[in-house]
């Protein structure tokens, strides 16, 4: 990909802002360098924070790219699809960072000539805040949650209930989204493909067994087309920025604007289970309290009891992510085993009981 140089960037900014353009600095967006040993090692393109002055007024934007790699990001069209979808959907979702523009790096710089494009980039507004995973880290370190932690779990449940209240009628699209849960590059089969083939405990037979059981779940879910809703699509603690109190902004709506509400609920709540295991090696205490608070609030606001009979394979997918030696390599094998036990065992449950999880962590 062409290198980003200051002159090309200045010429690009002139398309949207009045000259003179004075670029102050370009630096990686802060935050990810603070991730401690237990968090993600695998990531995509590093967002760049661009600070500049236009007609004497300071401005900050963020330039986003997608790094080549596995999980369906091998080719430029793969990466372009992600960025094009982000550009179309970011600004439609309440409390989400706004997309400002999409462009392309060409052999002569960031000029939009499609036949010459080597890579796309996305420009978004810059939003301040601190990723939600820092809250979970603090709770793990201090051993307890404070009132604000429960308030934030409540506001996130209320936020999803509001998003999911927007329903759509497109049966074939709902079928597609449930099919993608199994076969998409970033979903169940994409993740199982990333597991090492020679691991001393995570066997091919074990992973294949999970895949086979999720096929049965797909046929069970494909008729529930009335559930097609507006969604975030990747709602987890790395994509939520909190400021003071319960004020927050969501990031990285990258899998489309419609889908199954259980996707969002599983994406967030699996992290309460994950951090709970990191803290205690079983599910109890403050993280169990946050999990229960979230589910109680969400179910009260939506009345969607049906979600409990839909969510098991979505929790399987998210458990496979946090158990992944690729995405999260730096924690003990006993925790990884419990997460994979959960991923497997939940598929045998026709309905999730949010208040009874520990038996699902044991090997059967």
Describe this structure in words.
Strands 1-2-3-5-4 form a 5-stranded antiparallel sheet. It has a 3-stranded antiparallel sheet with strand order 6-8-9, with helices on one face. A two-stranded antiparallel sheet has the order 7-10. Strand 2 and strand 3 (57-64) form a beta hairpin. It is globular. It has 2 domains: 6-125, Phosphorylase Kinase, domain 1 (2-Layer Sandwich), CATH 3.30.200.20; 130-361, Aminoglycoside phosphotransferase (APH), C-terminal lobe (Aminoglycoside 3'-phosphotransferase, Chain: A, domain 2), CATH 3.90.1200. The chain is of the alpha+beta class. The chain is built from 11 helices and 10 strands. Helix 5 (171-183) runs antiparallel to helix 7.
Itemize the secondary structure elements and their pairings.
Layout: H1 6-13, E1 21-28, E2 48-54, E3 57-64, H2 76-89, E4 99-106, E5 117-125, E6 130-131, H3 133-142, H4 147-164, H5 171-183, H6 188-194, H7 204-221, E7 229-230, E8 240-242, E9 248-250, E10 258-259, H8 261-280, H9 285-302, H10 312-322, H11 333-345
Helix pairs in contact: 3-8, 4-9, 5-7, 8-9, 8-10, 10-11
CATH overall fold name of the largest domain: Aminoglycoside 3'-phosphotransferase, Chain: A, domain 2
CATH-defined architecture of the largest domain = Alpha-Beta Complex
Q: What's the Cα radius of gyration?
A: 21 Å
Shape: globular
How many angstroms does the end-to-end distance come to? 49 Å
Q: Which parts are unreliable, with pLDDT below 50 for 5 consecutive residues or more? A: 31-44
How would you write the strand order of the largest sheet?
1-2-3-5-4
Q: Portion of residues in helices?
A: 40-55%
Instruction: Kindly estimate the percentage of residues that lie in beta strands according to DSSP.
Output: 5-15%
Helical stretch tally: 11
CATH top level assignment of the largest domain: Alpha Beta
Secondary-structure content class = alpha+beta
Q: Residue-averaged pLDDT, rounded?
A: 89
CATH homologous superfamily (4th level) name of the largest domain: Aminoglycoside phosphotransferase (APH), C-terminal lobe
Give the ordered list of helices and strands.
HEEEHEEEHHHHHEEEEHHHH
Q: What's the main sheet like?
A: 5 strands, antiparallel
The total strand number stands at 10
Domain module tally? 2
């Amino acid at each position: 990909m062409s290198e980003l140089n200051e002159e090309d960037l200045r010429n690009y900014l002139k398309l949207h802002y009045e000259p003179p353009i004075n670029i102050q600095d370009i630096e990686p967006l802060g935050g990810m360098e603070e991730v401690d040993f237990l968090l993600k090692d695998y990531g995509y393109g590093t967002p760049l924070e661009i600070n500049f002055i236009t007609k004497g007024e300071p401005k900050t934007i963020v330039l986003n790219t997608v790094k080549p790699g596995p999980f369906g990001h091998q080719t430029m069209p793969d990466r372009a699809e992600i960025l094009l979808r982000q550009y179309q959907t970011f600004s439609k979702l309440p409390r989400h960072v706004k997309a400002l523009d999409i462009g392309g790096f060409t052999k002569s710089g960031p000029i939009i000539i499609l036949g010459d494009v080597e890579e796309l980039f996305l420009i978004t507004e810059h939003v301040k805040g601190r990723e939600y995973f820092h809250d979970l880290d603090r709770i793990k370190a201090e051993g307890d949650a404070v009132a604000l932690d429960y308030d934030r779990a409540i506001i996130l449940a209320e936020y999803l209930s509001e998003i999911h209240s927007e329903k759509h009628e497109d049966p074939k699209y709902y079928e597609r989204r449930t099919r993608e849960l199994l076969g998409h590059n970033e979903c169940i089969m994409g993740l199982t493909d990333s597991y090492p083939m020679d691991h001393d405990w995570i066997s091919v037979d074990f992973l294949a067994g999970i895949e086979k059981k999720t096929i049965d779940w797909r046929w069970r879910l494909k008729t529930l087309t009335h559930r097609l809703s507006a969604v975030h699509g990747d709602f987890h603690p790395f994509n939520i920025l909190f400021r003071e109190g319960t004020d927050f902004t969501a990031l990285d709506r990258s899998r489309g604007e419609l889908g199954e509400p259980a996707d969002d609920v599983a994406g967030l709540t699996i992290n309460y289970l994950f951090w709970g295991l990191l803290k205690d090696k079983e599910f109890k205490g403050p993280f169990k309290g946050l999990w229960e608070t979230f589910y109680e609030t969400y179910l009260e606001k939506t009345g969607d009891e049906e979600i409990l009979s839909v969510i098991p394979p979505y929790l399987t997918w998210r458990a496979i992510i946090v158990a992944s030696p690729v995405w999260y390599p730096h924690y003990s094998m006993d925790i990884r085993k419990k997460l994979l036990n959960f991923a497997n065992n939940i598929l045998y449950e026709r309905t999730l009981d949010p208040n009874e999880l520990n038996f699902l962590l044991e090997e059967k």
